[in-house]
Specification:
The protein is 15% helix and 53% strand. It contains 1 helix and 16 strands. The termini are far apart. By secondary structure, it is an alpha+beta fold. The strands form 2 sheets. A 14-stranded antiparallel beta sheet has the order 1-2-3-6-7-8-9-10-11-12-13-14-15-16, with no helix packed on it. A two-stranded antiparallel ribbon has the order 4-5.
């Protein structure tokens, strides 16, 4: 009987202990849940405050340039300071701009004129308001980099392997366009296709307006193929009539390929100019660039060819470029 009483008493204590333990666990769980709720509320408040801010980023590059060309000295150069400003206004509306300071310009107002200590440039390179409808259809309005070829878009470090751009870039297709653009991406089986359609003021027109009634029109399509390590092919087209009634139609083709550690990038562009004075000519250029990657180190060779006009016999230009690019991270 005594043993039975002790056993019952032990069972009672075990039952009470278990309840007390469960109560402590429930209390601890409730405390954790409350802390999680507080953290989640603080997170939402932080995200709300961050969404009201503008995200600022950018890039900078400096150089030491050595040249054997006549009239050029070995020199240091503060080349670019570009600041990106991005604002996600809503889930679908976004603002983006890039302000570029090239060659560290110094501008000072003096008696109504700008007096500077250098030939630098302060330039609004990009400023767009974008509407992101879905991956297949998006629209942007403002100033955007003209989608023609590879280098016109991917000219920022570290995407561009060399500091100096190829000879024909910006001499056939314009650097920027002020206007309206639609673009999107679609899957075509194993191939990914990206397109751009745009219309704008035309090249040489400031952001304040157009200097004639004609509008420039352009298009680009790029295909990413499931071949090699990477293979992308692109086609570009552009038409414009400037204030001197010179009509221009430009065509371009580009390729970006990679097989293991070896990368190749090349572009070709042709501009057909039809002047109102009867002076018709063609301008063309191309480059081919090889990059061999050794870990953080890239060995680079590029060949450039450019002809400003096929009417002249001695204006063709060629450049051979060898470079070493080291990625610190």
């Amino acid at each position: 009987m005594k043993k039975l009483f002790v056993a019952c008493l032990a069972a009672v204590f075990m039952f009470l202990g278990a309840n007390l333990l469960h109560a402590e666990e429930r209390k601890s769980a409730d405390s954790i849940a409350e802390r999680v709720s507080v953290i989640e509320a603080e997170r939402e408040d932080l995200l709300d405050r961050l969404n009201k801010l503008v995200e600022v980023s950018g890039y900078v590059d400096g150089e030491f340039v050595m040249s054997d060309q006549a009239g050029k000295n070995n020199q240091f150069r503060l080349h670019h300071l570009s600041l990106f400003f991005k604002k996600q206004v809503t889930e679908q509306w976004r603002f983006f701009s890039e302000i570029e300071f090239e060659d560290a310009p110094f501008l000072e107002a003096s008696d109504g004129e700008l007096d500077g200590g250098s030939d630098g440039k302060l330039f609004v390179e990009v400023m767009t308001i974008e509407y992101l409808y879905n991956p297949r259809l998006n629209a942007s309005m403002g100033r955007f980099l003209t989608p023609a070829g590879i280098w016109s878009i991917e000219h920022y470090p570290p995407f561009a392997a060399t500091q100096e751009r190829p000879l024909h870039i910006r001499n056939i297709f314009p650097q920027v366009t002020d206007g309206l653009q639609v673009n999107g991406t679609a899957n075509l089986g194993d191939t990914v296709a990206t397109y751009y359609l745009y219309a704008g003021n035309g090249e040489g027109n400031a952001g304040s307006g157009d200097n004639n009634e004609d509008k420039s029109m352009g298009a680009r399509v790029k295909f990413k193929l499931p071949l090699l390590t990477k293979l992308e092919l692109g086609l570009s087209g552009f038409s414009d009539t400037n204030s001197s009634d010179t009509e221009k139609i430009a065509y371009g083709a580009d390729i970006s390929a990679q097989w293991r550690n070896l990368r190749f990038q090349g572009e070709y562009a042709l501009g057909d100019y039809d002047s109102a004075t009867g002076t018709d000519y063609q301008r063309s250029g191309y480059y081919g660039q090889f990059i061999y990657g050794l870990g953080n180190l890239d060995l680079i060779y590029r060949y450039d060819w450019y002809e400003p006009s096929d009417e002249a016999d001695d204006d063709q230009k060629t450049v051979n470029t060898a470079a070493i690019n080291y990625h610190f991270t």
